[in-house]
Design a protein that fits this description.
CATH superfamily: Metallo-dependent phosphatases
CATH architecture: 4-Layer Sandwich
Strand order of the largest sheet: 4-5-3-2-1-11-12
Oligomer: single chain
CATH topology: Purple Acid Phosphatase, chain A, domain 2
Number of domains: 1
Strand content: 15-25%
Shape: globular
Number of helices: 8
Helix content: 40-55%
Structural class: alpha/beta
Distance between the termini: 40 Å
Order of helices and strands: EHEHHEEEEEHHHHEEEEEH
Number of strands: 12
CATH class: Alpha Beta
């Protein structure tokens, strides 16, 4: 059974990186549909593919699925991020219901949202690219350690534990960077005469008000596994894959129990 939304926004899937959760995002999309699908940057990880990354069948399967959506009247908008900056060579691009661009103005009922990946407003990725790439090496190493650690935890029946999220939450510089990033994006939305801003880039899902601007961040599909959805009533929600999957499995279990429950007959 599919759930229908007005808009689904995904970012930071990082196809090509070892830690990308392509299988999970495909499963999520197969259970949901929408009028507009926005891929808000870093969908393909060109940085990792140039180094040690690998393009897998699941990654191709992802694009086949979204192109199938585009052929069936879903509007697909791919916004370029910093890890897929190779797309600069073909921007802007449009073919039928599929388009690639730097940013986008999304109308949501009586409001307008400025949709952008966010790296263009990050001084590290724009002015000091070599530091950004050095940070990417460190982040990738942390994810590898995290993968090994969580494999050990899984064997012992322990839940997933994100090392990078703990680091971001505890390191003062990281917390300050996220706060500055969010404030700057809110200011940009105001300059664009928009009511809100929707971004990705920092792998930190959020739904908050910043100085009267609705700030939304779709998170990522490396660790958080989160998506932004807009209902047909204009309500925005953050969906976390682990919570969503639990609900799907519970619904399947309830349906199975209903199908095979014994029928009681009453005789007089």
């Amino acid at each position: 059974m599919k759930t229908y939304y007005k808009t689904i926004i995904l970012s930071d899937i990082h196809l090509g990186a070892a830690e990308s959760k392509a299988k999970e995002v495909i499963r999520f999309l197969k259970h949901n549909r929408c009028e507009t699908l926005i891929l808000n940057g870093d969908i393909i990880d060109g940085w990792q593919l140039r180094k040690s990354g690998t393009w897998k069948k699941q990654h191709t399967k992802f694009f086949r699925l979204i192109l199938k959506w585009a052929s069936k009247r879903t509007r697909v908008i791919y916004i370029r991020g910093n890890h897929d900056d190779f797309l600069d060579e073909i921007l802007p691009f449009s073919l039928g219901n599929f388009s690639i661009c730097r940013d986008y103005i999304l109308r949501s009922h009586d409001k307008q949202y400025y949709v952008v990946h966010g790296d263009l407003f990050d001084s590290v990725t724009t002015r000091l690219k070599w530091i950004a790439r050095l940070g990417d090496v460190g982040y990738t190493a942390l994810l590898r350690i995290n993968r090994t650690y969580n494999s050990w935890r899984e064997k012992r029946g322990l839940p997933y534990y994100s090392l990078s999220q703990v680091v971001k939450a505890k390191v003062k510089g990281a917390v300050s960077f996220i706060s500055d990033f969010e404030t700057e994006l809110a200011a940009v939305a105001r300059l664009k005469k928009c009511d809100g801003v929707i971004c990705g880039h920092i792998h930190t899902p959020a739904d908050k008000q910043i100085d009267g601007i609705h700030y939304l961040n779709s998170g990522d599909w490396v660790e958080t596994l989160s998506a932004l959805v807009e209902t047909h009533a204009g309500e925005w929600k953050i969906i976390y894959y682990t919570d969503w999957l639990m609900q799907v499995e519970e619904a399947k279990s309830d349906q199975s129990n209903l199908m095979f429950s014994p029928v009681l007959t009453v005789t007089s």
